[in-house]
Specification:
Length: 434
């Protein structure tokens, strides 16, 4: 059965189409591989500060074409952000260490520290936690600070001391102080100019009447039983410089805000995220001073909040080197290139664009006829050889007419045929009787 030979133009179209399809698939795979990874991050705070900071960082990551991006999911508070994270609705979250279910959380960065301040109005006789017996304390933020209240209750047995805690919103706090519906306020805030100004605004502004800061002397004991907290000394003059409030370093509790990730997230991607976030911090710290508090989390195995493996690799300098990361690609590339070369060679041969070469079988036949001429002993043998030359040349002309790629170059064949015919002429002269 004769094989159907496709026209040259159709073979070119087929190979070109296959080549374009391969290039398109390769480009798609490349751009898919290098595309930036987008993480959803839950953010919530009472005053919107956390949203502002993370939005600025997200914009910076986009502007610098970082390999990772952030999509902000706004929540009403850090508690709601923690709830969104624990229910796996987001990849990342800004959480406070004492709020929500963090069993699946692993730390990437410590974003800020918040300090517990128990502040009484100017002229208050309150001096320590024990003096709160029978008093009412307004808890600014309400539910978000429930864990702090519970820790203080447990440590100081405040229920027996009949200390009443009342949730108050930020706008209500000043009115509660002025109406004397509370005897003190409990705030948990970062010690930054913005938040310290907010705390001062909750009390009458008078150079002779100063608010009273109440120390939490048992902060160390609280931190031992509640690992989300640590003992911290508020520096002298933090709330007010002159006269100084407090008038000496004051012991209290401190809790951290973390950027956390789900355990299941790829460690290489989280390592890229950590590097990109710290680069964005460096660029934005001038306009967002609170970013000065951003630090690495505790990388010890027994840390309160375990660090994500990707972040740990970045901070410990144990990321894979270039050769480690790309060793397989370096090893496989020559093999792949060799395979591609073979495929291209086959395609080149298929479409018939290679340099034409003489038909080896036709040339071999002519060379064989030359040997027969030298051995011929009769005239009829030479006539048969001439007929064979005619057949070979006719066969090659037919191949050329049919567009056969295997057709020999006629110029080459004619040279060989002329040589054989010259040998025939000479042999005839030899065979003629003298």
């Amino acid at each position: 059965m004769t094989a159907i030979k496709l026209p040259a133009w159709l073979r070119i179209v087929m190979v070109g189409g296959a080549l374009l399809l391969t290039i398109g698939a390769g480009l798609f795979a490349y751009f898919w591989y290098v595309r930036p990874v987008t993480f959803t991050v839950a953010v919530g705070s009472l005053d919107g500060e956390a949203d502002t900071v993370l939005s600025a960082i997200a914009s910076r990551l986009t502007a610098t074409s970082a390999p990772v991006r952030l999509r902000i999911v706004n929540q009403s508070s850090a508690l709601e952000a923690a709830n969104a994270f624990s229910s796996s609705k987001v990849d990342l979250a800004v959480v406070r260490g004492d709020v929500g279910d963090l069993s699946q959380a692993q730390a990437i960065l410590v974003l800020a520290h918040a300090v517990a301040l128990i502040v009484a109005p100017p002229g208050s006789p309150l001096s320590d936690v024990a003096s709160l017996k029978g008093r009412r304390v307004g808890v600014v933020g309400g539910q978000i600070n429930r864990a702090v209240v519970d820790a203080l209750r447990q440590q100081y047995d405040l229920d027996r001391a009949n200390v009443k805690f009342k949730d108050v919103s930020l706008p209500e706090a000043r009115r509660a102080v002025e109406s004397k519906s509370v005897d003190a306020l409990l705030l948990v805030i970062p010690l930054t100019p913005k938040y310290l100004s907010l705390a001062r605004s909750l009390f009458p502004q008078n150079s002779k009447s100063l608010p009273v800061l109440i120390p939490i002397e048992a902060a160390g004991a609280v931190a031992e039983s509640h690992r989300a907290y640590e003992s911290f000394d508020v520096p002298k003059g933090t709330l007010r410089g002159s006269p100084a409030v407090p008038d000496d370093d004051l012991t209290t509790l401190r809790v951290s805000f973390y950027l956390v990730a789900q355990k299941k997230l790829n460690r290489d991607t989280i390592s890229d995220l950590t590097r990109s976030l710290l680069a964005a911090r460096r660029d934005l710290i001038g306009e967002l001073p609170i970013l000065a508090q951003v630090t690495a989390p505790d990388t010890d195995p027994d840390a309160f909040l375990p660090v994500h493996a990707g972040a740990a690799e970045y901070f410990n300098g144990t990321q894979e080197s270039f050769l480690d990361e790309w060793s397989n690609a370096i090893y496989l590339t020559p093999m792949i290139l060799g395979g591609l070369a073979s495929v291209l060679a086959a395609a080149w041969r298929f479409i018939g664009l290679r340099t034409s070469k003489p038909d080896a079988s036709a040339l071999d036949a002519l060379y064989a006829l030359a040997r027969r001429v030298r051995k011929a002993q009769r005239e009829d043998e030479l006539s048969d050889i001439e007929d064979r030359i005619d057949d070979i040349l006719s066969d090659q002309r037919l191949k050329i007419a049919n567009g056969d790629d295997d057709a020999a170059d006629m110029a080459t064949l004619n040279v060989a045929a002329n040589r054989v015919e010259g040998l025939i002429h000479a042999r005839r002269a030899t065979l003629k009787p003298s």
